[in-house]
Structures are given as structure tokens and as C-alpha cells.
Write a structure and sequence with these properties.
4 copies of one chain form a homotetramer.
Chain A: E1 3-9, E2 14-21, E3 24-28, H1 35-43, E4 47-52, H2 64-71, E5 74-78, E6 87-89, E7 94-97, E8 100-106, E9 115-121, E10 130-134, H3 152-167, E11 175-178, H4 198-204, H5 213-221, H6 230-240, E12 252-254, H7 256-264, E13 268-271, H8 275-280, E14 287-288, H9 294-301, E15 308-311, H10 316-327, E16 333-337, H11 340-347, E17 355-356, H12 359-367, E18 373-376, H13 380-385, E19 392-393, H14 396-402, E20 412-415, H15 420-431, E21 437-439, H16 443-450
Parallel strand pairs in A: 3-4, 4-5, 5-6, 10-11, 12-16, 13-14, 13-15, 15-16, 17-21, 18-19, 18-20, 20-21
Antiparallel strand pairs in A: 1-2, 2-3, 7-8, 8-9, 9-10
Amino acid sequence: MMFLEKIKSEGIAHLSYILGDGRDAVVIDPRRDCEIYAQIAAQQGTRITRIFETHRNEDYVIGSEDLARRTGATIHHGKALDFSYGEGVSEGDTFEVGDLVLRILETPGHTFESISIVITDKNYGDDAVGVFTGDALFIGDVGRTDFYPDRAREVAGALYDSIFEKLLPLGDQTILYPAHGAGSVCGDSMASREFSTIGHERLHNPVLKKTDRESFIDFKVNEHHYQPPYFRKMEEYNQYGSPPLHTLPQPIPLSAGDVEKAQKDGAVLLDLRSPEAYAGAFIPGSLAMPLEMIPAYAGYLLDYDTDIILIPETPEQISEAVEHFIRIGYERLSGYLKNGMHSWEVSGLKYDRIGAVHAAALEQRLKNKEDFTLLDVRQISEYKQGRLAGATHIFLGELRNRIDELDPDKPTVTFCGSGKRAIIAASILKRHGFDKVEDSLGSMQACKNVGCELQQG
Amino acid sequence: MMFLEKIKSEGIAHLSYILGDGRDAVVIDPRRDCEIYAQIAAQQGTRITRIFETHRNEDYVIGSEDLARRTGATIHHGKALDFSYGEGVSEGDTFEVGDLVLRILETPGHTFESISIVITDKNYGDDAVGVFTGDALFIGDVGRTDFYPDRAREVAGALYDSIFEKLLPLGDQTILYPAHGAGSVCGDSMASREFSTIGHERLHNPVLKKTDRESFIDFKVNEHHYQPPYFRKMEEYNQYGSPPLHTLPQPIPLSAGDVEKAQKDGAVLLDLRSPEAYAGAFIPGSLAMPLEMIPAYAGYLLDYDTDIILIPETPEQISEAVEHFIRIGYERLSGYLKNGMHSWEVSGLKYDRIGAVHAAALEQRLKNKEDFTLLDVRQISEYKQGRLAGATHIFLGELRNRIDELDPDKPTVTFCGSGKRAIIAASILKRHGFDKVEDSLGSMQACKNVGCELQQG
Amino acid sequence: MMFLEKIKSEGIAHLSYILGDGRDAVVIDPRRDCEIYAQIAAQQGTRITRIFETHRNEDYVIGSEDLARRTGATIHHGKALDFSYGEGVSEGDTFEVGDLVLRILETPGHTFESISIVITDKNYGDDAVGVFTGDALFIGDVGRTDFYPDRAREVAGALYDSIFEKLLPLGDQTILYPAHGAGSVCGDSMASREFSTIGHERLHNPVLKKTDRESFIDFKVNEHHYQPPYFRKMEEYNQYGSPPLHTLPQPIPLSAGDVEKAQKDGAVLLDLRSPEAYAGAFIPGSLAMPLEMIPAYAGYLLDYDTDIILIPETPEQISEAVEHFIRIGYERLSGYLKNGMHSWEVSGLKYDRIGAVHAAALEQRLKNKEDFTLLDVRQISEYKQGRLAGATHIFLGELRNRIDELDPDKPTVTFCGSGKRAIIAASILKRHGFDKVEDSLGSMQACKNVGCELQQG
Amino acid sequence: MMFLEKIKSEGIAHLSYILGDGRDAVVIDPRRDCEIYAQIAAQQGTRITRIFETHRNEDYVIGSEDLARRTGATIHHGKALDFSYGEGVSEGDTFEVGDLVLRILETPGHTFESISIVITDKNYGDDAVGVFTGDALFIGDVGRTDFYPDRAREVAGALYDSIFEKLLPLGDQTILYPAHGAGSVCGDSMASREFSTIGHERLHNPVLKKTDRESFIDFKVNEHHYQPPYFRKMEEYNQYGSPPLHTLPQPIPLSAGDVEKAQKDGAVLLDLRSPEAYAGAFIPGSLAMPLEMIPAYAGYLLDYDTDIILIPETPEQISEAVEHFIRIGYERLSGYLKNGMHSWEVSGLKYDRIGAVHAAALEQRLKNKEDFTLLDVRQISEYKQGRLAGATHIFLGELRNRIDELDPDKPTVTFCGSGKRAIIAASILKRHGFDKVEDSLGSMQACKNVGCELQQG
């Protein structure tokens, strides 16, 4: 039986695929916790014989090597980069999987060695049924081209050519299988819909409306993207190989006393709970990191050589956090506070709290011209689209390094899109000795819903 | 989050879908064991508000009413049939699901009230992203039009119009979501690939190459399809409602003695094991029905008012058999032989065996002109494509009623495509007093592989 | 194969059992979500033929009737109560299950019709291997005898006789299978260990050291137990039958606006989050009910005819809350706030907060003789064992009816064992217009750990 | 929370345990696929800190080292053997696990370094609540003492002392947690019941009725046990360490042609199907090994350095076979025949069949004094308890080496307890060129049920 399954990794919004027919299966861009591909292959009565990497990823650790160790599969990637493992493929190479044929397209732009993989069905002509586009073409967006800043126009042009001269010509009927969905740091404007075709993108992808090559290039070189520092680690791992991961790390349960001691010994306490819970009571010195924010922000705020202790709301959050972390290469997850904040509270150890400011109250303070810092930590693009007057802007990912720009003695209200980044920012300020910190629960979304006046540009 | 999941029911090769965005979800053609839709909806944080039936199905029991009872959803179907439940919809009706819009197309042909449902995304123009086509258009085939024999050309023409004037005009970019995949009794020639688009079908679906209306009609009215007798029950259930199914039937474990007694009391013993196992030892009077053959053949051979006792190879087969059966409306699954055939053997009760004939030996017998019946029970179309000389053809589904055409005293070898239907036929002959029955393990496939001479036409 | 499995329902700390041999299985005291027994029975290749109720339970809805409907099993219970369903059994009745024999002992005391069920193994003599003791004998405690206040000494004496004249004489070798473990409202002093024998209890169960009948009775009649109002509903259900439960209720996702409207229409908003999260931000008018507190306190605070809307921390909490609720007979779980408190915050609707007082600060306030109410809501027995000077005691279960005893204008700090009941109390005060409410996170445990001075008696 | 869970490995009927309280957990005698212990520990919020081996096992590969690698736990075993890993413990050593105390008893006999581990609960006196007895004392039986044939009376005496002077004195109230249950090769007479106490064993364990030391020793030295050759491998692994097992082997799907080739290249084809299925059609040269027979017989018939190809009835059998195999140290599970025997049949390759003889027909043949070999392959003890007149006895485990004692030209009927070992024997004879082989389906059980005349002694 022919089968094609999409495996989505939430958080990094990464899409990988397993495709098989008869006794063989292939995997496209496997994630690091790769057990799932082996399971699907076994259920389908197939063996994974090939693994394709559409490009060297910078936002997560690719699982090719671990999966190859388990299955004996061959790893393939584009030739334009010098990988320490695997075999290069070139334009036009074909691979048979039962009645399917996979054909390589070289589609540089996002990276130089990016490839796309076209699916055709031997029994139904030569036209493409589908195409794995990696980070070249997404649903509603195209790939980033900000990784070679000194060759910016060149790579943007390459991406134009890859899309307009190779992908669109596959025909409108071609189903699109990209490497990321909405929520990825690899694109700001992806659709929340995860099914589309070359034809539907040609008609409605906003970026593809820039059909003129120069306009397309202009648009791309003027885009703004942040590059979290952890990208460097990912690039290193994905080019030269990552540490084998036989089993997932299993953080051990710790008492409040254990956690206090670990913190003194240099571990970072990472609080996975919601903004309200953190604001209600937190361990002094801990860093707020609501569980779902790990993929996007942990890589800005955590070092790879520090022990991480988790403060969870529920036990289930531990394994979810572990998945998020190993996918971006963090493995020193040494323990967690058993029974969460409750066990800290009953121990009698000190806890701290953070004030909350409702949107209406915040606007009132601004109108009253009260003396305080309104710290907006959103991305610059969000900030420009609409902000409260008088806000100070420092992007959350840069706050650690720019904290000296702020006055620790002044009352400060942290602010973001909906309140999640604001609590992280508040916890950073607290760690740096800011005393009078409040958090805008709901932040910009609440402001809009209560009708606050916004500035733009 | 927008999501679209395909739920496949193996055996009947039925494809249903759940589609959601925000807080609402809709289900297309739910199966009877409908727990799975409720689970997916809950995981996605949505409630199922609408259920669409693309048409009154004749090959399985639709689960709309059970699912509506659980969820409070509204059921919709085409207006051209007088259903006892649900609400009719018409060409052009639209339904919003978050940012998605579903639009009704009336696409008669397979049945008069057949509808298709077009998906568009508000944020990305008016062009179709996908379409649920029910039994109008499949991947590699089109729907059957043999249900109104006295209006044969009319319905074939209607199907032509539905496809060529409504579905193809949606555009090549439209992803195809049909109600069946390969293996269904609703079409002989579907692709084993389960992903395609309107564009790819336009280019490569063999039936769509008949672009001339009259040629298309000629082709359709000359097709041959079997109609299992259970279709009548399904039509009744799906138009007027089926018995509620709160929990799946749970056959109880029986000893060999219990099974012997139940058989005397009129129960049919249904042996789920492989052809080899059945041939190796079986309970006299039992009917062979290798597990995976239930969806296609149980409806020819079993009555709805007889108790069924299962003879399994492994305990896991019980629940799989139950799923197959309730989907086609059989609920009297009263028990199973605990520990399978082994417990019958150790009880000392009598068992019987069936001989096996290798393809090479079979050909030799034919060459030697030995006096025996070679009973080929395949579909007539398979028979015409290639057969051994001298074979007697009776389709398996008709064997019960045509058994008088055979001589019970003559040695008989049963024969089919690969040996599974042959064992069913052998067991039927045994039940009717045929003594000298042998089974061609491997049957036509083995014959081809050993190079037997075949006749055609 | 012989098997015996314990099924524990967390929260109510209810222990039920399934026991089987050969083709038959029996269930002791099934819970209402009874799918699990049918699953185990099927996996073991058995059918459930009998269900035993050790007594009419008052703390949860028994699942006998639902399970009997699924399986056709016969329900058995003691004869001394007039049940609307099932069959009575008497001292000495025996039931064979393969090689096992179950023998009935009448063991009144907890209730008049209480029975115990002795297990012997035909192949290994007549001595008991184990005994299901229901609520007669627990590990580390014995059953409550406060349900017939006008016959208090009589029932305590009956329990003495049941234990000393029937259960202990079974012999030290008898494994104990009671109906509850630690955490149940059916006993305050059960061991956290869930495995023991008649012999180990005879040696070390503190209550069994009162070997003199009168001392035992004195001890029992002087015990104090609370009887939540929901017990009346359970008694009614368990004697006369409960509504059938085909599938678990599935609360639907609601927006902040939906929730606001439902509240206005009379629904109660039940906040399942932790004390810290509730204190950090909550919906005005909502009732705090940390998930794990439902079994013990929902029955004091919620009516059976009011719609319940859940405010969860994580989606997983919904199904867990549903399980807790249906086991104590609440089924009107109409919806939940999708994305939890976050969606309320971004909607711009008003939220409220509760102050937190650290144990050290609390003691300081007391020393400073500040004017405030310290409201201790623990059970009276906990209060007597150790309390802060000056505390006002009202048991949480009684707070709703005794709230007039408190001054709404005075600052109030709620206090309990570890902070969970304190947050419930705080939310009740808030609902009744108390403005200056603070919560002692950590409460008594924190006080002990920081060395607060305690009073006793 | 205190918890104690039994983990049973079917087939080898091995019982291991995980026991925990608070933040610590310990494991007793872990199996090699040790993921399950880590999962339970994590669910319970505990870390595994210690692993106890009650003795060096000879019938399976202990998983201590793999589990220690995952968890950092310390491994403990008795001091009387020179292990390459872990730490020795001595009589009286104690280990605290929350409120539990584990105390070591040296209980030699089965092996010299065997230990038992007593559980007491700090809060409930010093009496034992339970005891892990390893292979010293089982339910209904005691451990084997045949591993030191030149010191037979010494070790039998040591076992007597261990049981009568150390285990029974723990008191009747002590729950028994042995290392094996019914079906293990470590004892013939264990009860099928898996719950008991020291008291119940003292009263009803048949072996413990030999209270006189010399009678006990006489009984033990006269017992007969078989020692499969694979025991040597297990002893080596369990004393000096076994190869690490990061993930379970995953046999790959093979076509009939692949399998034929692998067989030619020296792989052994192992047919996991039922006796009936094998008899109905099998691959010439394959070895019958009904799935559930692997633990008891694979170790007699398979070498450690040969590739094994599996012929399954259902795909699910593959992973079950893998579990059975890795537990006894076989890892060269290179592939399996995809779609099982069906794919062999359709390939046109030759298959073979085995005749079946009903018990009644068999007795008739014996009465008729037909000239054939009736080969009884049961254990000698079964043979002595009752056999058909004229049977030739060769134990299945010895058949490979004693096949020369049989006449390959004589018709041969294989015979065992219920037909499973008989089919293995039949396949061995076929492999050795015996042509006229038949199998007695049902064997001795069927004979008894049809009233065959039996001889004894």
C-alpha cells in the first residue's frame, strides 16, 4: 500500500514526512526524536531505506543520523554544502519507492544546498503529484533569505528562480508539502491552513504576487527576521553531526530543598507555568518560560552548558518540555520540582509575586502621565503595526543584553502581544534586581479589545 | 488552528474526514464506530457542529445519527432523497467553519442526491483549496452508476455533467478528498495512491479521458458491478436510520463444547483464520472467512438474523472482526472459540481438513485431462482477463445460490486470485456435502509466477 | 489463567477489583466509568458473569448497572437493604470462578447490609487466600460507623463483631483487599501503603489494638466525620439506580464571551487551576476548585441542577475533571473556557486577584496583633491537633452556610493544611462580597517549616 | 505515594517488581526491555535509585545494567558470586525507600548468592509486610536445586534452611513476591494463582509439607529438571554483563524471494504460526515454533550466531517474538516474510504440508498394530504420568541430538501434550529428511477426552 504521512512537531511548527510503497519507505527531514518514523514504517510493513534532508536546518536538530543508525537507511542532501555525513544528490536524480518516483530539484535561496523532491506515480504519467519544498515555498509565504547578509540580493534572486522557474512549472495540480507550518520562526506570514497546492499558491500566496524578479528581491532584502543565538548550534549540529540520542533525558524529581541547592550551584530554574500562575507566586531568581514558549524563546535565553531545573504546573508538562528542548539541542535537563510550586510553598521557603495591570488601567496610567516604563518586548514588526504611546521597545530576545538601557528603580510594566512574552520579560527584570515590576496580562490583544488608542509606524 | 484529518476504515476502504477551525468542526461521511471523531474534535478543542453525508451510502452504515446524538451536531445531506432524519442542502449553500467556507455542489450520478463540498479559505481568495467528492470522483476512477438500471444512461450522463461541468471547473489546484480508496467495492480501478488533485485527475484519471459525453455514458453503462445483497440493508439503514450503537458488541469466550452446541442451535461458525490454517484443520460445518475478507464477502454469505460465532487465530482478531461487522450492520456476534482451533483439537471433537494443490500440480492435472471440476470464483472481469483452460466460473458471491450447477461427487479444486476466496468457496462446498475438495493456495498469482498458460476473453 | 487486578480511582481513593479464572470473571464494587472492567475481561479472554457490591456506597456512584447492561452479569449485594436491582446473598453462599471459590461473609457495621467476600483456591485447601472487606476493614483503619446516629453503639458493636469474629479468624495469611485507600473520605487514618494482610492488620492496625468490645465501641462513637450533602444523592442512586451513562459528558469549548454569558445565565464557573494561578488572576464570581479537590469538596459546594463551566489550566484537566464529576453523579458539565484564563485576559474582560501571605509574615501579623480574621477551614480534628493562636475555625464544607458569622469588611486571611482549601475558601469569600481577602499559600505546613508557634486542643 | 507494581513477562513467566515511596523507587530483577520501569517511575514522580537482583538468573537476560545506564541507579546482588558489575549486599543490610525499609536475607539454595528482600513499613512496626523471594520460594513450589550436581544435597539443604529458618519465620502475614509464576522453566508445579502469603504457603505449598530436612533434601535431589543449552549464555551474560540494548531489533520485511535466498545463505526460517497453519502449508526447511513456545524451546533449537527469519501469521506477532527473543539473548532477528505464508504461496515457490491424525484414529492404528513410530516428545515426567502404549520417548529439547535413534523411512506421528511441541518435532523430522510425518493435533489432551487407554510409570 502506498502511504504518505505528515508528522508535525508543535512549537517549532516543523513538518516532516514519511512516504512508502510496497516494502520501502523514505523520510523527509526527520526530527530528532525519531522513534515515530520507525513505528509507522513497521506498522506499514516497510523499511526506511532513504532519508532526505531538504536543507541544513538552522532551527532544530535534524534526526537523520539517529534514524539511520536504527534503520540502516542512506541519508541524502544537496551537494552545495560540505556535510560530515550522508550522500549528495543533484538535479534530476531519481529514486524509486514502489510505484512512486522521487525526483530531485535543486532549489537554492533559503540556503545554497536546498533541494526539493518531486513525487510522481509511475502508473499515472509524468506530472507531479506532489512536491516536498523544504524551506523554499510555504503555504502563504516563502523561505527566509537572511542567512547570507553579504550576498543578500544573490540569495533572494536564487529563491525567485527556484520558485518561478522550477516549482511553479511543476503545474497547478501539484500538492505542496513544505517543511514548516504556521508558528515557525522560519517565516512570519504562513497560513494556518496546512494543505495547499502549487496552483493555489500561485493564485493566492501574497509573496508570489511579486512576479517581477527585482520586486521580489527588493521585498525579500527588506524583510526583517531575528536570528536566535541557538541557530549557530543547530547549524553546527546539522552540518557536522549531533550527539546520539538513545533515549530521551528523564529529569528527576526534586524537593524544594534540592531545587534551592541546585540554584545556588548554578542551575537555572525554568518555570513552565502560565503567566497568571507565575505572577501569583514564583521562586526568586527563576526564569518564566510558559511551556509553549520554549521553542521560540529558550534559544535566546539559555546556554547549552548550564543545568536546567523545571518548575511545572502538571507532571505531563515535563515530557513535553523535554521534547521541545531536545529538538533544539538542550539535553542538560537534570531535574524538576516535584509537585511544582505547591511543594515550594509548603516548604516555607520565600516566594515572590508580580503585579498585574489590566489594559484599561494601563491606558489610564498613560493618560495620567504617571512616571513608569512601559516595556514592549514584541518583535519590531509587531511594534510598528501598532503600539501604545510612550512605550519603550526592546525585543525579548535582546533584553538580556540591553537591560542596562532600563532604570531598575522605576516602576516597569512589561507588555507584549497577549501576555506570555511579558511574563518572561518580567522575570528577567526581577532576576536583574528590578523591584517594581508589573505584567500586562492580555497586553496588546486586551488593549485592542478595550479600545485603547494605538500609534503606528 | 485549522485542521483536516482523513479517517480511513480499512476493508471497506472508506474515507471520512474531520475539518475544523477555531471552535467548530465538521465531519464528512462518519462511520458507525464514531468515537474517533469525537476524540479528535476534543483534542483540537473544537465541537462538532455539522455532519455532511455526501450521499446515501449503500456499502456501509453511516454513523451520522450516533455522532449527532453524542455531539448535538446537525446532519446535512442532498435534498433529492427523502431521508427520515437530517436537513437538506442545495447548490450554493455555504457554511462557515472559522476562516474556512464550505460550499455545496449538487453532483448527482452515483445517486440522485449526491453532493460535493468545496473548501475555500476566506483569507486566500475564492478559489477552491479542496473538495469532498463523495462517490462522484475517485483517484483513478469515478463512481458507480449501476443503481438505477432502468435509468442507466440518464444517471451516467448526470455523473458526466457533475464531473465535467462542476468538479473539473473548480480548477487544477483543488485537492481531492473522495469517500473511498483502493479496495472499495464502490469502484474497481482506484489508484492505491490516496492523494491527488482535480488537476492530476484531469490529466491522468483514465475514465476522464472519455471527454465526450456519449463515450463516457457508453463506458459507464457497459461496466459490470456486483451488488451484494447486504446493500439493501445499508440503503434502508442509511435512509431511515440504523439501530443506535452505544458500545461495540463484545463476543464472549466459548469452550469447544459451547461452540458445538451453538452450532447445533443454528449459529454459523465463521473461521477468521488464514487459508493455510483452515486447510490444516477446521470445524466441520464452519464457513471460512479470512479476517480481511469480511467487508467484501460477509454481506453475500451471512444473514442478519443468525448468530455468528467466530473462530479466531489470535485474540486481536476478535475486535477487528467486530469493527468490520458493525460497519456493515451485523451485530449478532454472540461468541468466539476461546484459544481458537487449539481448544477444539484438545477437546477431541472431530475436525476436517482440505487438500492443497500447487499451481504446477494443477496445470499438470489439466494437461493430463484428469476428471475434476476447477471452480474459479473470481469476478467475471478477472476471469475474462485471464483463466486456466477448462475452469468452471461461478462468482463467489453467487455460489450459495448456484451450487446445484456443480457435481458434489466429482473432485473439485477451488480457485481465485490468490487463494483467499478459494478457501471460502471450499468451505461452502464442504458445507454442502462435497467430499473431494481441494484448494489452490496462491491460485492465479501462483499460476502466473510458475508460468501457467492462460486463456483470455 | 487466574488473575486479580486492582483498579484504583484516584481522588475518591476507591479500590475496585476484577478477578477471573478460565472463562469467567467477577468484579467487586465497579466504578461508574466501567469500560475498564470490560476491557480487562476481554484481554483475559473472560466474560464478567457476576458483580458484587460490598455495600451501598455513599461516596460515589456504583457502576454495577451500567456494567451489567454491557455484559449481562448478575449483580449481588447483601440482603439487609431493599435494593431496586440485583440479587441478595447470605452468609455462606459460594460462587465458583474457575478454580477459585468466593464465599460470602455478612460483615455489618459500616452499613447493615455490608458483606465481605473470601477467596479460596480449590487446589490449595480451604484457608482463605484473600478477602474483599469493602468498608469494614481498611489498611490502618476500620470503616466509619456514623451513618445511623441513633443506633451509634449498635453499629459500632456490629463492626467489632464483623472484624473480630469473622475477618480476623480467617487467619493471618489472608491478603486484604479493601474498598478504599489513603485519601478517601471513608476513613481518616488509612495507611498510604496499599498492600497488607489480615495478619499485619491484626498486629499493627491501631484501631484493632482496641481488642475490648466496649473500648472499640467507645472509640468509634467518639470519632468525628463530616458527611458531605452529596452523600444523600449517592445513597439514592446506589439503592434505587442511577441514570445510565453511555458515554462520558464532553464539555464544549467556549470563548470568554460565551463564558461571561453563561455565568449571567446562572452557570457556576469552576476554576480547576492551582492556588497560585487562581490568586494570580481569576474571573470574578468563579469558584476555585483545584482539580484534585473535586472528589472531596465539590459535593459540599455544588448543586446537582446547576450548569458547570470549567476554567482549566491545561486541556488534559477537562477529561480528568469529567471523570471526577461523573463518579459523584454530576453530569451537567456544559462547557469549558477554551485556552483557559489566557483567553479571558486577552478578551479585555475584568479579572480579579487574591493576595498571598507567607507563613512568616502571617505570624508577624499575629504577633503585632493586627486586626484581621484568620479563617482556618480545616477539619475540626486537624484544627485541634495544632493551630495558630487567634484563628477562627469554620470547616470549608460548612463555610457556605456559616458565612454570616464573618465580617466582610475586615481583612481576612484564609488558612488550611497546605493552601488548597484556603484558595477555595478565599474564592467563596470573594463571591460573597468580601473585599480584603488574602490566602496563606502553604498554610499550616509552611507554618511548621518556618517554626511558627502552635496551639493544641 | 507508596506503590508496588508487578511486571510480568509472559512466556518466561518472570515476575519483576517496582516499589517506591516519595521520590525514590527500587526495582527487583528487571527484565532486559526495561523501558517499562522507567515509565512507571516517571509516572509516579520517582527516580529509580537501586536495582536488586535476587540471584544470577539462568533463564533470561537481566536488565540491570541497561536500566542503571538510563537512571543512574546502583545495582545490588548477593556477595557469594563474583559479578563484573554492581555492589554486594549482606544479611541484615537495610535500605530506606521513603517510609519503607528493605532488609536483606541471604537465602542460598537455588544459587549460592541468592538473596531475599523483606519489606517493612516504618509506621507499622517491624513485622514483614512482604518479601521478594526470588527463586527460593514460589507459590506452590520451591526453587530448583539442580545447578550444582556435585553438591546436590548441600544446596538442597541450604534451600531448606533458607525457607524454614529465614522465610517462614517472617510470619504468616507476609505477602509473597516471587520471581516466577506458573509456566516458568524454573519450577514445574507452581500455582496458576499469583498472589499468596508466607502463611498460605506454609499451610498449603506441597513441598513445604516436607518439614523434615532430610525428606526435603531427598525430594529435591530426586526431582528431574531439563537444562536448556541457552542457560549457559544467560549465566555468562548475567555474571559478566550483556550487550547494551538501546532499541529493540526491528526485523525488516522480506519478499518470498528474499526469504528463499536468506535460507540458502544459512538463515534459519522460524515459523511462528499455529500447528494447524503450519500443517496446512509451510516452507520446506523451516522450523515450526508457535509464537508462545519461543521462551521454552527456542533456547534448545537455535544458535546464537545464526540469522533468524520469522514467518508470522499476523504482523503483531513480530514485535511479540522480538520481545521473547531479546529476553533470552537472541538479537539476530534480521527479517520476516511480509504478508506471511500468503506471499510464499502466491510466489509459486514450493510449500510442504504435514498430515494430521485425530486421537481416535491414532488409537485405532495402535490397536491395529500398524507399523509406525509414535514419537512422544514431552518431558519425561509427563510421559511417566500417562502415555499411549508403544510410544517412543525423546524429549523435544533433545530431539536434535538424538534423531539418529529414529528410522526416517518409517511413518512417524509426533505427539505431545496438546499438539504444539508435536508440530515443532514434526518440522525437525522434516528438516532431517523424514518423509512420512504426521502430527497428532490435540495429542494427549485429545486422547484423554476421547477416552484413550493410557499407561503409567
